[in-house]
Structures are given as C-alpha cells and as structure tokens.
Write a structure and sequence with these properties.
Helix content of chain B: 55-70%
Number of strands of chain A: 7
Number of domains of chain A: 1
CATH class of the largest domain in chain B: Mainly Alpha
CATH superfamily of the largest domain in chain B: Cytochrome C biogenesis protein
Distance between the termini of chain B: 84 Å
Strand content of chain B: under 5%
CATH class of chain A: Alpha Beta
Distance between the termini of chain A: 62 Å
Order of helices and strands of chain B: HEHHHHH
CATH topology of the largest domain in chain B: Helicase, Ruva Protein, domain 3
Shape of chain B: flat
Number of helices of chain B: 6
Number of domains of chain B: 2
Radius of gyration of chain A: 20 Å
Number of strands of chain B: 1
Oligomer: heterotrimer
Strand content of chain A: 15-25%
CATH topology of chain A: Glutaredoxin
Structural class of chain B: mainly alpha
Chain lengths: 176, 152, 640
C-alpha cells in the first residue's frame, strides 16, 4: 500500500476526533475575557434607594458576588431560590445588578420572592452590563479582595455549581 | 397682480411641496456608515449567527448605540474593536484576528494551494516521463484548420 | 377526528424498509464477491421495494400533514389548521424528523432510478452499486427508527398544532430542501459507483462513463437547491443579502465545489482514462461532504440560523454513521487505488493539466470553506478559547482562490487533449483578452465608480464570455455542436453571468434607510420611490400592516410595491415581507422597518443592479448540466 493513499483516511480520522470533542462543547457560550482582570468601575444608583449610589470600589478588601438579574427574565426566577439560599449561608456579600429593568417591577419581584441581595445596583440602560460583557441574564461574577474578577457563571447558578465551584472558590479567596 | 403671481406660484409648486424628500433615519449618515462597516464584521451575541449590523435584538441595538457613541468620541476602528473584544472576547469578531492560534486558518489554505500546485507539476512531469510524447507543431495545426475549413 | 392507524402503517413501512435495505446491502455484495448469480439478482428488486416502502411512509407523513392529524407529534409540532395547504406540505420537511425521512425517501428514489436505468450495465457492477446504496439506507433508517421517528404519536391528540415558523411559510422554502437533498443524496450514486469499482478492482473509463450522468444530474439539483436558498434569503430576510457563509450554507456549498471538480475530472477519466484514482477519491469526498453537512446541521456543534433542534444523541449517531461510511470507503481506497492502471499520457501543456489545475483550486477552495467552518470548533475543543469565523474570512480567502479558476475556465476548452501549443492558445485567446480588458475599464467608468476589485470582476466574466463565444463560433464552422459542448458553454457562461451579478451588486448597490410618511419620496439608483399610504391587511394566518409605494422613473410610475409587516398568530416576532420590483438589470427592494410617530415608518429602500443575474447564472449552469446529461452518448440503448 503506497503511503500517499492513506493520507485521506488519516485526515478524516483527525477530523472525526475534533467533531467528537465538539459534541461536548456548547457553541453558543461566550466565555468571559474579563476573568483575572479588574472588575470594570461604574457608579450607578441603588435600586431601593435612588439617591444612594453603588460602586465596586466600596467592596475592595472583601470577596463579593455580583449577580446580574432582571424581573423580566424567566431564568432569573429559576435561579432566585438558589440565591436566597446562598445569601443565608453568608459566604460573601451578594450584590445585585438590576439590568434594563423598571424599578417598580424589580422591587415587586424582590418583595414577593425574597431579597437575597445586600443591595441591588440599578443599571437602567444596560451600559454597566456592556462593560461587564453581559449578553444574557442571569450572569454572576465572583470578585476577590483586590477587585479582580475570578469567575463568571453564565446562566442560572445551580445547586451543583454552587457546591462544586462557587463555595470552594470563595473559601479559597477568603483565605488569601 | 403680484398677489396673483404669488398665488399661482404656490399653487403650481404645491404638488412638489406636498411630496417631501424622506429624511434619513440616522442622525448622522457619516457616523452610520462607519457603524455599519464596523458592526457588519461583528457577531450579534444573542442571535443564531447574525451580524451586529442587521440584528434586531435588544443587546444588538444597545451595542450599536454604544459604538455610535465611540465613533462620535473619535475612536478609531481598531479602538472600537478592542473595546468589544475586551468585553466579549474574540468571539465577537467575524474576522478572526491574526494571532498564533489562527495562523493555520489564515495561511493554511494558501500553503495547501501551493503544495497542491507543486504536487500537480511533479505528477505531470513524472507521468510524462513514463510515456511517449506526441507533439503537433504549429504547421500541423494550421493544416488541420485548413482541412476543416475545406471540409465545410 | 378519530385517530387512525395510518401513522403506524407509515412506521411499519419504515421497519420493513430497514429489513429490505439490510438484504439489499449485504446479499448482492456477497453475491458479487462469490460470483453467486442468484444473490446478485436480488439487488434490483430490493431497490425497487425499498423505494415503494419509502413512498408509502413518506406519503403517509405527507397525508398526515394534509389532513391535520395532530395525533402525530411531529405534525403537531410543525403545522396547524390555519396553515395554507402548500405550507402544510412544506412543513413535512420543516423539522428534523421529516427532513430526514425526505432524505431517505430520495435516497431510495435514486436507487430505484439506478435500478431502472442501468439495464445495460454489468450485473456484478449493478449489484455492488445498489448494495452500497442499500447499506447507506440501512444506516439512515437505523438512525430514524432509533432516534428520530416522525410517526411518534401524541395522545391525547392536540387540538391544534404549534405551527410552522413563519420564516418557512414561503414557496421558496417549500422547494429548497427537496431540491437540495436531491443533490446531496444524488452524490451517493457517484459514491456507490466509486466504491463498486474499487471493490471490483475494475477502475476504468467505463466506470466514469456510467458515473458521469448521475453525477451531473445530482450536481444540477444541488446547484438549483443552493440558488433557491440564496434567492429565498434575499427576498425573505429583509436585508437584501444573498449569502452569509453560515455553516449550513457552507455545508451545501462544499459538496458543490467538490462535485464541480468531480464533473470535470470524470470528463478526463471518461475520455482519456486518466485521473481514475483522483475521480474515485473526489466521488468519495463529495458524498462525505454531504454526510458531514447532515451532521453539522443536526448535531448542535455549530451556531447557525438554519440548525434544526438539536439533541446530542442524534449528533453521536450521525457521527458514527459518518465515520463508518467515510472511514471504510477511504480505507478501501487506500487498499485498492494503488492497483489501478495508469491512463493516457499527457503533456504539461494540455487540456488534462488545465482541468487538473482547476480541480486543485476547487478542492483547496472547498478545503478553505471547511477549515473556516470548523475552525471555531477546533480551537474550542482544544480549550484554546472561542473565536468566530465569518464572512470577512471567507471573502478574503475563498475569492482569491477562485480567481484562477475563473481564468482557467476560458483557457481550458481551447487546449487540446494530450498536448497543446502555447502559442496557439495565445492566438486563440488574445481576442477574448482584449474584450475583457476593455470591459474592465469601460463598465466601471460607465457606472461611475472604479475600483480594482470591480474591474477584476468584469475582466474575468467578460474573459469567459468572449472566449466562450469565440469557441462556439469556431465549433459551428467545424461541425454541429454536441450537447456536451453546449452544456459546457452554458455552464461556463453561467458562471460569468453569476460573477457579473455579484460584481454589479457589490459595487454599485444603493441603500437608503429613511423615515417616510405618506407622500414622502426617496431617490435611489435613479428611481423615485414614494410612499402612498399604510393600510391594515389580513392573511390566512396573520394580520399585517401594508405599505403602498410607487416606483417611478422620469416621472412615470413603473410599479406599485406593497411590503408588509406581518404578525403571525403563531409567533410573537413580527415578520417583514419585503416587496421587490425585479427586473433584468436591477431590483428595487422596499422593506418596512419599525413604525414611528405621525403615521411615519422606518423604511429601507435598495437599488440592486443586476442582482438577478446571480441566480440567473445558476440557472444557466443548471441548464448547461442538463444539456450535458442529454448528450447522445448517454442515450439508453433500447435494444439489449
């Protein structure tokens, strides 16, 4: 068998290997380029108190969690109970970023379903979201004491992710 | 008399006046032009493979507005692209940046092309050596033409 | 409506078809290997029976759609009672399960055609060819019955269906998949012939002669299918684009490129006995691309507007099918190909070389499309990040690779087989060269804007057309042109027409994005478009707002256009139906955007010069293929 005739088969085998690997990846997911970079600065009013403001600067020195949510977002409702549990565990302050929402509807949701957040920042036009590379809600960031983003969860936090990834990471970051 | 002339001018002109030239949607066509050029090469992140330029999705509209702002601030195309990549990664660019990970992508086809042409030349050369050659000279070709013409 | 057992019959027909396909795939193949006549002869009847069973099955599914049988899950998911009949039929292939059934139906159809139209072919060959087709059908039937059964029931039956995506409720979309699949699936015949010849060890010119008409026919359908899809995207999606290098578009384009290379390679194999191994390899690759495309669209590995609803199980199954079919054929190729004898000799300067050179470019072009389409997957699977590869890449890489092909198109037919004289070639071509250069300089001047890329487009297209005309004139002086010759000229000129369309539209189209109220006008491409009014309208399953626009030139109203904004009962998203005034030299395209204040609307108006030449060129190519297939050589000899 002359060598060159087997080349097509070899190339095909390589192709199939990649296709198999591809089946395990989600082509829609956009991983964040902000991991291990400083959390972008912003200053917006708070949801509950329009005359008060919030900026990530205030959280320096602590490990904290930023959860992007909205009252119009169905998946956020699914995630909500997990967040409530999380807040009870008091691992790290949970700050909400209410994304492109109406104050009244957002407040109503927190009223009826419980408020897991220490506070929620109000991102009316979504510009903070853009700076954080938000493309779908809910998204959650874990930020360390120096203000560096260490982890991003795309989509709702599940109990599994909470247990396997978020808990250990926060414990780790708290030690540093 | 003047009133009459004025009135008739208005009457005659009214069909033209009634038909208005439509105004562009964009506030600034120049900015819009640049926006389209830049956003056409970017992905709408919440769509199933549409460009940022054409998508009607909320996020796409927000991002286009953001880019308009950047253009007005005088940012260059490269700076705007960097802005987007900073936030969404290389995934947002439809034109893959040329970096080591994409060298194979950009150069690969041309290397294979060169390889293919070389292989072809070698193959034909080798083949030719294996069999005898027959050549029709110019003279013979012209004779054939003449014969064919006569045949008609 | 009382549930009937018709869907069960359809399902049962598929199960029977599986059994028959296994028989068809295995018995004749062994028979050919062992020389058993009685096993060989099973091939034809098996192929005929498979087709009959698939006709029943497909017929039952179509009937279920026609009568709105919502006790069938697939019908309930893709159709509803308000859907007009035409679209109810189109909905049969609107989803994964149904389109896969269409695939297999057409596969058995091709098998049936081969069984009927090859009475003069050697029994051993026919047995092998039909066996291979049977094996492929087996694989696909296992897939359908295992993971994608279209006859699954819904009890209790739904009151009404979910309806078809409004985007698919369009005549273009009704015909596009069947046309496309006829092409995709049709390449299975060339593939089967290639495998049969490798198995038999008889790799000769006769094989090429048999393969060629089947290949051309499949290619014609694929050309039309792709053109339909492109044209549909143009008028339906509202932004006037006609090709987006979307992964699914690429999945249909790659087999086309390989198929085109194969067509030309077969010419050489048939005429001169050369390129046998290459033609066989191309035949295998062409069909592999079809299967790969099927995988890409249904597995969820790539992001695409076209992708069917995905299920990882399906992805795995198709991948296994793909690996088995392609892997075993390439293995067979590696074993048997080296044994075939070499064909006729030819010089470096000869028609053979030109065709082979064209092949190299076409195959590399297909490779670049494959690379671009799969690269994001490649990078992601190695955990090296996520990138996108879109139109800017493909335009930058694909176009330069195709330019030499366009150049060669005009040269090849002038070259003689075996050997040709360079001086003679130049003598024949200089006239076309002059015409091309003149066109490249003059036309952009006339249109008012010169750019090198535009000039190149006209240079190449007129080069091809002028050369083709000169060839035809010369041929007419010698003898009556064969249908093959006419086919070649039409095919090549078709490409030139296509290039003119693309060049004109890309370089000279105009777009106005404006705010229009009643009586407002906008100028575009020398035409005046005036909004007359906006009125409500009603369709069978939608409510709409209709804009009425008058298109005039030199003060005379030429056409009234009525674009609509439709709200389908079944979808929350409003749909834009653009209105197009199509003409030989231009389209005027009007599309309604969002409503604004004061009765005004955001309106998009395009002037698209020569855009219909894009699909006109494709039609010419398909017509060329038709002539080539109808050549006297392929006439079935009625005596046997």
């Amino acid at each position: 068998m002359k060598a060159k005739f087997i080349i097509p088969l070899i190339l095909f085998a390589i192709l199939v290997a990649f296709l198999i690997a591809g089946l395990n990846h989600d082509p829609h997911e956009v991983p964040s380029p902000l991991i291990n970079k400083p959390a972008p600065i912003f200053k917006v009013s708070q949801l509950g108190n329009p005359s008060a403001f919030f900026s990530p600067e205030e959280m320096k020195g602590q490990v904290w969690i930023l959860n992007v949510w909205a009252s119009w977002c169905v998946a956020c409702r699914e995630e909500h109970p997990v967040l409530v549990e999380m807040s009870k565990l008091k691992m790290a302050p949970l700050i909400g970023l209410d994304y492109k929402d109406k104050r009244s509807e957002a407040m109503a949701m927190l009223e009826s379903r419980g408020n897991p957040y220490t506070l929620s920042a109000f991102d009316a036009d979504g510009r903070v979201g853009i700076d954080y590379g938000v493309y779908g809600v809910p998204e959650t960031y874990i930020i360390d004491k120096a203000g560096i983003i260490r982890f991003k969860q795309i989509g709702p936090i599940t109990p599994e992710v909470l247990e396997k990834t978020i808990d250990p990471l926060i414990a780790q970051l708290n030690k540093d | 008399m003047r009133k009459f002339i004025l009135a008739s001018v208005f009457l005659l002109a009214s069909p033209i006046l009634l038909a208005n030239e439509a105004t562009p949607i964009a506030d600034d066509p120049v900015v819009e032009q640049r926006l389209i050029a830049i956003s056409e090469e970017m992905r709408c992140l919440v769509c199933q493979n549409e460009s940022l330029a054409g998508s009607r999705a909320d996020l796409a509209q927000d991002l286009r507005q953001e880019i308009r702002g950047l253009i007005r601030q005088g940012k260059t195309d490269d700076e705007i692209r960097a802005f987007m990549v900073e936030r969404y990664g290389d995934f947002v660019l439809y034109r893959p940046p040329v970096k080591p990970i994409t060298w194979l992508l950009w150069i690969g086809p041309f290397i294979i092309l060169l390889g293919g042409i070389l292989a072809l030349l070698l193959y034909v050369r080798r083949r030719g050596d294996m069999t005898k050659k027959i050549l029709l000279s110019d003279v013979e070709n012209e004779r054939i033409d003449d014969l064919l013409r006569e045949d008609k | 409506m009382m549930p009937t057992i018709l869907p069960e019959i359809g399902h049962f027909a598929l199960i029977l078809a599986l059994v028959i396909s296994i028989v068809q795939g295995v018995i004749p193949l062994i028979g050919a290997h062992q020389g058993r006549e009685d096993w060989l002869v099973l091939a034809r009847p098996a192929a005929q029976l498979s087709f009959a069973l698939l006709t029943i099955s497909f017929g039952v599914l179509t009937w279920s759609f026609y009568i709105n049988d919502f006790s069938v899950l697939y019908v309930a998911e893709h159709s509803n009672a308000l859907l007009p009949t035409v679209y109810r039929i189109g909905a049969v292939w609107g989803g994964h399960e149904g389109s896969l059934l269409l695939w297999i139906f057409l596969l058995t159809g091709w098998g049936f055609a081969v069984a009927q139209l090859s009475k003069t072919l050697d029994e051993f060959m026919i047995a092998r060819v039909l066996s291979v087709l049977g094996l492929i059908a087996t694989g696909l039937l296992l897939f359908v019955l295992g993971t994608s059964n279209p006859f699954e029931r819904l009890f209790p039956a739904a009151q009404d269906g979910r309806s078809l995506n409004p985007l698919l409720q369009d005549p273009g979309l009704v015909f596009h998949p069947p046309m496309l699949y006829m092409g995709y699936v049709g390449f299975s015949v060339a593939f089967a012939f290639a495998i049969a010849s490798l198995l038999s060890g008889k790799l000769d010119a006769a094989w090429a002669r048999w393969s060629r008409p089947w290949t051309i026919t499949a290619w014609i359908f694929l050309t039309l299918g792709i053109a339909l899809g492109s044209w549909w995207a143009y008028y339906e999606l509202g932004w006037g684009g006609w090709w987006f290098w979307d992964p699914v578009e690429n999945a249909s384009f790659m087999p086309w490129l390989i198929g085109t290379a194969l067509l030309h390679s077969l010419v050489v194999t048939e005429k001169r006995g050369g390129f046998k191994n290459w033609s066989v390899l191309l035949a295998i690759i062409a069909f592999s691309m079809s299967l790969l495309g099927t995988f890409l669209v249904r597995s969820g590995v790539l992001t695409s507007v076209h992708a069917f609803a995905t299920d990882p199980r399906r992805g795995i199954f198709i991948l296994i099918l793909l690996s088995v079919v392609v892997g075993s054929s390439l293995f067979l190729y590696a074993l048997r190909a080296p044994k075939s004898a070499i064909g006729g000799a030819f010089d470096l300067m000869s028609r053979e070389t030109f065709i082979l050179l064209g092949n190299v470019f076409l195959v590399v072009a297909a490779g670049s499309v494959l690379l671009g389409t799969l690269y994001p997957l490649l990078v992601d699977s190695l955990n090296l990040g996520k990138i996108s590869v879109g139109p800017p890449y493909f335009n930058a890489v694909f176009v330069p690779i195709m330019i030499p092909v366009l150049f060669l198109l005009a040269v090849g037919p002038w070259a003689n087989w075996k050997t040709t004289n360079l001086r003679l070639l130049l003598k024949r071509l200089w006239g076309a060269g002059v015409v091309a250069i003149v066109a490249a300089i003059l036309i952009p001047r006339m249109m008012g804007d010169f750019s090198w890329l535009t000039a190149l487009g006209f240079l190449l297209s007129f080069w091809i057309i002028a050369s083709g005309i000169l060839q035809t004139i010369r041929q007419l002086k010698v003898a009556k042109p064969t249908r093959s010759f006419i086919g070649m000229q039409l095919g090549h000129i078709g490409i030139a027409v296509f290039v003119i369309g693309v060049t004109m539209v890309s370089s000279y189209q105009e777009e106005r994005d404006v705010r229009m109220g009643p009586s407002d006008t906008v100028m575009v491409g020398g035409y005046q478009v005036q909004m007359i009014e906006v009125v409500p309208a009603q369709g069978p399953n939608y409510q709409a707002t209709r804009g009425v626009f008058e298109v005039s030139r030199h003060g005379r109203v030429e056409r009234v256009l009525t674009p609509e904004k439709r709200n389908y009962d079944s979808s929350a998203m409003p749909m834009t139906e653009a209105a197009i005034d199509a003409g030989l030299t231009r389209d005027i395209y009007v599309s309604l955007g969002e409503p604004l204040e004061n009765q005004a609307w955001a309106v998009r108006v395009y002037y698209k010069p020569f855009v219909d030449w894009i699909w006109g060129g494709c039609l010419l190519m398909a017509l060329g293929g038709l002539f080539a297939v109808m050549d006297k050589r392929y006439r079935l000899r009625s005596k046997k």
